[in-house]
């Protein structure tokens, strides 16, 4: 049993300079799998409108977004043989709505992942991102979405997670409580939408430093034990932040597999 990274250079775009930073994933001590040349047309129709998909074909991000969806599909297939699959997401994140692009996301990769796993077992979705997406609204599945905070998730008009920003240094303790809720839910699959934008050095300016990241990784490695896990590594803009986070992720995951 092992951890795999599903990665293709085709998700990078000259129009999205930050997409190139995901090459740091190749530094991880994990097997890297290229996505297959998959036809994802019908799958996209399950989360986006036909009219929107047709319009999206003229967008300069289209080819990168399609490749990103292929990576996600290939990652879920990889979970048949592996415990954890890590996928970077660029223009197929969690913000795109059924009929429109939002926040740089042409397609909603998180919604696609939830849709694909729906028939395989109980799913828990954990979003630790400075923003929250529309996957819960457009995936139409029974997956349970978990948020930082003890109350029902509060989302601002620009999709920022209000609770996540309010907790500050208490973010880690709130995360631990959320992890206990996930354990009680007892899912077969976990999808972790890991946004690097919560790092204090990133544009969201949240209060998450090196020590908080160590605690976050420890809490997460605990909840995934014995469960198939898809990690969608997303958001952020800085390569140095991404490198720090993936190295901490690697350290936390090694030794935590079945």
CATH topology: Arginase, Chain A
The CATH architecture category equals: 3-Layer(aba) Sandwich
Radius of gyration: 17 Å
Count of DSSP H/I helices: 9
Write a structural description.
The structure is a single chain. This protein has a seven-stranded parallel beta sheet with strand order 2-1-3-7-6-4-5, sandwiched between helices. Helix 8 packs across helix 9. 35% of the residues lie in helices and 14% in strands. The protein starts with a strand and ends in a 5-residue tail after the last helix. The chain is built from nine helices and seven strands, in the order E-E-H-H-H-E-H-E-H-E-H-H-E-H-E-H. It is globular. Helix 8 (210-223) links the parallel strand 6 (189-195) and strand 7 (228-234). The model has no long low-confidence stretch (mean pLDDT 88). It has helices at residues 41-45, 50-56, 62-78, 109-117, 135-138, 162-166, 171-185, 210-223, 239-253; strands at 3-6, 31-33, 84-88, 123-128, 144-146, 189-195, 228-234.
Which helices and strands appear, and what pairs or packs with what?
Layout: E1 3-6, E2 31-33, H1 41-45, H2 50-56, H3 62-78, E3 84-88, H4 109-117, E4 123-128, H5 135-138, E5 144-146, H6 162-166, H7 171-185, E6 189-195, H8 210-223, E7 228-234, H9 239-253
Parallel strand pairs: 1-2, 1-3, 3-7, 4-5, 4-6, 6-7
């Amino acid at each position: 049993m092992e951890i795999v990274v599903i990665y293709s250079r085709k998700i990078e775009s000259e129009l999205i300079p930050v997409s190139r930073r995901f090459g740091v994933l190749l530094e991880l001590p994990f097997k890297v799998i290229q996505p297959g040349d998959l036809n994802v047309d019908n799958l996209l129709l399950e989360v986006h409108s036909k009219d929107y998909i047709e319009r999206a074909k003229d967008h300069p991000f289209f080819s990168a977004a399609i490749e990103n969806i292929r990576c996600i599909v290939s990652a879920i297939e990889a979970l048949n043989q592996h415990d954890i699959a890590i996928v970077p997401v660029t223009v197929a994140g969690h913000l795109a709505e059924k009929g429109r692009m939002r926040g740089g996301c042409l397609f909603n990769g998180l919604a696609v992942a939830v849709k694909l796993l729906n028939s395989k077992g109980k799913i828990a979705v954990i979003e630790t991102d400075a923003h929250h997406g529309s996957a819960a609204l457009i995936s139409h599945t029974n997956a349970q979405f978990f948020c930082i905070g003890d109350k029902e998730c509060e989302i601002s008009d620009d999709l920022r997670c209000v609770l996540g920003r309010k907790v500050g240094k208490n973010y880690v303790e709130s995360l631990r409580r959320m992890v206990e809720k996930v354990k009680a839910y007892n899912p077969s699959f976990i999808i972790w939408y890991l946004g690097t934008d919560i790092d204090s050095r990133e544009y969201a300016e949240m209060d998450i430093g090196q020590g908080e990241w160590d605690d976050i990784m420890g809490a997460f490695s605990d909840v995934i034990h014995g469960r198939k896990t898809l990690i969608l590594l997303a958001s952020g803009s800085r390569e140095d932040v991404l490198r720090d986070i993936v190295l901490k992720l690697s350290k936390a995951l090694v030794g935590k597999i079945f």
